[in-house]
Design goal:
Layout lengths: L1 H22 L5 H26 L2 H4 L2 H24 L4 H12 L3 H13 L4 H28 L4 H13 L1 H14 L6 H12 L1 H13 L7 H26 L4 H11 L5 H10 L3 H28 L1
Length: 309
């Protein structure tokens, strides 16, 4: 366990460095915004495309893993929704809480960290988890917010979701890479080198951007943030483990990666959605901050457990 903690510590140390830079204003909010854009649109997309394009399609897609992770995540999502309903919250606020409870920072933190901890073979399962989060749950929260406000699901909402998915660079890079792989087109050496160099910037830049963005997060509503962090860091990996190990068993290695991905802290894009729609942004902010701090201890514990499995 000490060895695993020491292996994960550098990742969180870079997040801490970014937090210091943001908190001290050495790295102002505008700089954080542009660094995040660089990672999102260029570095991380290059990494995703290269891995998707160079791995055989059959080695990437695992239907049982997708179903197991999806059902495990839905269970945690539903628990958070029910608890929110019992607290008499409206549907949009409940949706934001459920998103905090079940959607982790797979893109910026999980992809680079798990690839280095478990080897590049982890990229395939991580991409599947990331795709489920982006396609299913990023769409679901938009649907729930609009239904809660308008009382119905309109064509405009569906169109908004569709255009959002089509413009998401991570979805585009994964899809493009999978198509390239399925067509069995070799990646030319200059293109591979270009993607390798650009994608190599994803890990430190993404981790630093996470820390810098946390500097502006508030720690209000600690009890709610604690509950949502418990859902994300404990219940989510537990339910995913129940699915991919026992109920819908998959091969050991992808199961390990999916459980580890489920143990990651709340994703930063939950706050962006909450702020965009004006629905409980402080609640999402506190959950991201608290879960990221707690994950310094909980993520190594989960990785240690799955490594023994």
């Amino acid at each position: 366990m000490v060895e695993i903690f020491l292996r994960t510590f550098p990742f969180f140390a870079i997040i801490g460095l970014g937090f210091w830079a943001g908190r001290s204003r050495f790295f102002p909010p505008d700089a954080t915004l542009y660094l995040t854009k660089f990672v999102f649109f260029f570095a991380l997309s290059a990494m995703l495309f290269r891995f998707a394009a160079t791995l055989p399609f059959a080695e990437i897609f695992d239907g049982r893993l997708v179903i197991g992770y999806l059902i495990g995540t839905v269970c945690v999502y539903a628990i958070a929704m029910v608890i929110a309903y019992l607290r008499s919250l409206d549907l949009p606020t409940a949706a934001v809480e459920a998103q905090c409870a079940a959607i982790g920072n797979v893109g910026f933190l999980g992809l680079p960290m798990l690839a280095l901890l478990f080897s590049e073979a982890a990229i395939g399962p991580v991409m599947l988890v990331l795709t489920v989060d982006l396609v299913v749950f990023s769409s679901l929260i938009v649907i729930l917010i609009h239904v809660g406000r308008d009382g119905r699901l309109s064509f405009g909402t569906i169109r908004l979701i569709g255009f959002g998915l089509l413009k998401n660079p991570m979805i585009l890079s994964i899809s493009g890479g999978l198509i390239w792989s399925a067509l069995e087109i070799p990646v030319p050496a200059p293109l591979n080198d270009f993607l390798t160099i650009l994608g190599g910037a994803a890990t430190p830049s993404a981790l630093f951007a996470i820390g810098a963005s946390l500097a502006d997060k508030s720690a209000e509503r600690i009890q709610i943030a604690g509950w949502l962090s418990f859902c994300k860091l404990v219940l989510h990996p537990l339910f995913v483990a129940l699915m991919v190990i026992w109920l819908i068993p998959v091969a050991t290695f992808p199961a390990m990666v999916a459980i580890a991905a489920a143990s990651l802290p709340v994703a930063g894009n939950v706050y962006m959605l909450a702020a965009y729609y004006g629905v409980a942004p402080q609640r999402a902010s506190a959950a991201i901050l608290l879960s990221t701090m707690a994950s310094i201890l909980t993520v190594p514990l989960v990785i240690g457990w799955v490594s023994g499995y």
